[in-house]
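Issue 218. Parser rejects a valid record. Input:
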Amino acid sequence: MMTAAGFYVHTAPGEAEAELAELNKRGYIDAILTDDSDAFVFGAQVIIRNPTVKEDNDTIEIYTMESIRCHFSGQIDQDTFVVLALLLGGDYSPGLTGSGVEISSSIAQDYKLRRELASVAHSDSAQQSQLLQSWCDKLEKFVVTTCLGSAQQLHGKLAENIRSDRSFAQLEVLLLYTHPLTSWHPASPQLTPPFASWMPKRPDLPGLASVCERSFSWGAREDLMKKFLNIVWPAIVINKLCMPRDTLRELQDYSENMVVEWGSFPFAHIWEIVASRWNPQHHVLRYQIEILTSGLIQQTNSGLQGLRTGSLHTGSSPSPIAAFQRVWVPASILKNCFPSLVQRYERERARKRKRKNSLATSAQALYVPVLPQPLNILARLDDAVATGVLPAPFG
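Output the parser choked on:
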């Protein structure tokens, strides 16, 4: 499934986050998609928080080591996260009892403390245990000397915890963070994969269709095609728009033939932009593009073998797939790929908006009230009765 979707599959010799962090640090991958903040402990530079599609929509949270460093005025680095991991706990240890986020952050931002812990990890193995105990002594002294006001009792208790239980500062745990087992580790049982040859790959649509037909109970051919229409094809379109391309050739091909070629078949005729939508909550603009589905139908069908029988639609057969499909695309992606298409749509939308405003102004100018002043009927009747023009009403 992963290979058919266009992803590389690599088995890490150790912790997955450590391998990904090393790949990110060496520039083989741009970012790590994860909810595990331990990746920063291993040296990751860019983390994309795994989004919840229904809640987050197109909003993506990206955390970079550079932005974190700028936020804390340059006082944050990988060593800072290692100190935080030891104090707050992580996958390998429960952390230091009584050490909350605030005081742990203060300790981790102390340049001398974090540099001395880093030197312990990179010192001679025969001296590491003794040096780590010495670091714990300095940590205890740091906590005591930074006691201020109402926090004095809390800090005193924390210093006592450091003195009585140093299980939070285990040498094995420290080395797991600073020297994790990765493909570049001397003890790695496998050769370093050819990461430099990794290039963006196009999804194999027939292969995806074949895997889904064998693995999922999505019904017969017609039902599976509907699933691809709603789930797979929009992702295929956006994936294609994000792929590196010969921009000049494809823009020329688009302007002349309104076709974007993908491999040996036109993956979609991007017909036009039909709508736009601004999400005020997430500050995201999206365009809805209309594409022809003939190429997508052809490629999906070519991977199906007719292994499933019977429709999931009881009592009625699924409706045929339309020749056109509308797909929502983030504006930033479409602007990058086809700026002229976006500009043309925005010009036309501005023209329609201007014409609509002009018509509204003209209609307002032509409006003439039938009665220039409101008639106070009751007041005039009272005047007529008072002057005797009309008789007084009975009552």
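Fixed in the parser; the record now loads. The longest helix spans residues 339-366.
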